[in-house]
Design a protein that fits this description.
The protein is an alpha+beta fold. It has two helices and seven strands. It has a domain of 93 residues: Aldehyde Oxidoreductase, domain 3. Helices cover 20% and strands 28% of the residues. The relative contact order is 0.32.
C-alpha cells in the first residue's frame, strides 16, 4: 500500500468546497510511456484503489511492457469511530488519498502494442472513482 514515509503534519486540513476544484497544471502530458490514463473529473483516489488498478494492469499485460504510476497518496484522511460523541478532538488518521484534478495523467504504459495497453488501462479505470480517458502519443 502506498503511503508517505514521513509527513510534516500528521493531520491535514480539509479544503473548503468539498472535492478539489480546477484543472491540473502539472502531469498533463505523457512523460514516460506511449499510452496513458487521463482523469476527466476531480476527486480523491485512495492508496487501495491505486494498488487495485496497478494489479489489474500488470495481470492484463502479463510479462510485457512497463507501467508508471504518476500519482501518490500524500493527503491523510481522518475518521472518528462510529457512535462517538461530539468533541474530543479530531479523529485518528485512517488512510491516505491522492488528490486528482481534471486533466492529470494517472498511469502510463510503454513497450506494448496499442490494443493490449487499451484493455489494461480500461481494466484499471474500472477500479477508480473518477471518469477517465485513454490517451496516446
Amino acid at each position: 500500500m502506498l503511503m508517505p514515509r514521513r509527513v510534516k503534519y500528521r493531520k491535514i486540513m480539509r479544503e473548503r468546497g468539498g472535492r478539489s476544484k480546477g484543472i491540473a497544471t502539472s502531469k498533463t502530458e505523457l512523460a514516460f510511456g506511449s499510452f496513458g490514463l487521463k482523469a476527466q473529473t476531480n476527486g480523491w483516489i485512495t492508496s487501495r484503489q491505486i494498488e487495485a488498478s496497478r494489479r489489474a494492469m500488470t495481470r492484463s499485460v502479463k510479462k510485457g511492457g512497463k507501467i508508471w504510476i504518476r500519482i501518490f497518496p500524500d493527503k491523510s484522511v481522518t475518521l472518528k469511530g462510529s457512535e462517538v460523541r461530539m468533541g474530543g478532538g479530531k479523529g485518528a488518521v485512517d488512510h491516505y488519498v491522492a488528490v486528482i484534478k481534471r486533466g492529470a495523467i494517472m498511469f502510463e504504459m510503454g513497450g506494448i502494442d496499442r490494443e493490449v495497453a487499451k484493455t489494461a488501462l480500461k481494466l484499471a479505470a474500472y477500479k477508480l472513482p473518477v471518469r477517465t480517458i485513454f490517451i496516446e502519443k
